[in-house]
Write a structure and sequence with these properties.
about 210 residues; five-stranded parallel beta sheet; four-stranded mixed beta sheet; 10 helices; 9 strands
């Protein structure tokens, strides 16, 4: 009976899916980049978007930049795991890309907003969701200003949207505050490591040893 149960688990287990959400200016992108540098076992899902690339952004690396017609075509075909309209642009996550990466046994990070997170949890209830908060609204405003990429009008709009987004943090499994970057990074890495140590993940990772021991 024990071996049958273990085999059933091994057949079902794939990589872990991590959802990381934060308002603009909370440092989400920088933290995710650092996670990827520190942990080679996790992959970032590259979203599709209709927005214009910012300075230094590369197609296929930071985002898949597509036209609105291309985006709507993929959406109508059911190709997105989640999609949302954010600050006047459309964003979507390829379901095929995520499924293939997870089934290959790799962990995946989705860097998406709270609306997308809710859609993903409906399909992957086992997904681990994390919300990153700024230490204050003033810090959020300063970080957006320091980017030098947006007008004052856009920044004010983003701050207003951030207040609404942050009300949804209670829907997430974990919350961390990015006041000290290194501490926030260690929080995120700890969450990832703790979830990998769950029995289902360990049974997959050490399948041969488990079979010998049991």
């Amino acid at each position: 009976m024990l071996k049958m149960t273990l085999n059933n688990i091994l057949d079902q287990v794939a990589g872990n899916l991590f959802i990381i959400t934060a308002p603009s200016g909370a440092g989400k992108t920088s933290l995710v980049k650092s996670i990827l540098k520190h942990d080679a076992q996790i992959k970032l899902s590259v979203s599709h978007t209709t927005r214009t690339p910012r300075v230094g952004e590369e197609n296929g690396v930071h985002y898949h930049f597509v036209t609105e017609a291309q985006f709507l075509s993929t959406l109508s075909e059911g190709g997105f795991l989640e999609s949302a309209d954010v600050h006047g642009a459309k964003y979507g996550t390829s379901q095929l890309a995520v499924d293939c990466t997870l089934q290959a046994g790799c962990d995946v990070i989705l860097e998406i907003d709270w609306q997308g997170a809710a859609q993903v949890r409906a399909i992957y209830p086992q997904a681990i969701s994390i919300f990153i908060l700024p230490p204050s609204v003033e810090t959020l405003e300063q970080r957006l200003n320091d980017r030098g990429q947006d007008s004052l009008e856009v920044i004010n709009r983003r701050v207003a949207a951030a207040r609404e987004e942050m009300r949804h943090m209670v829907e997430f499994d974990y919350v961390t505050i990015n006041d000290n970057f290194d501490m926030a990074l260690q929080d995120l890495l700890a969450i990832i490591r703790a979830n990998r140590l769950k029995s289902a993940s360990q049974l997959q990772r050490y399948a041969e040893l488990v079979q010998k021991l049991t």
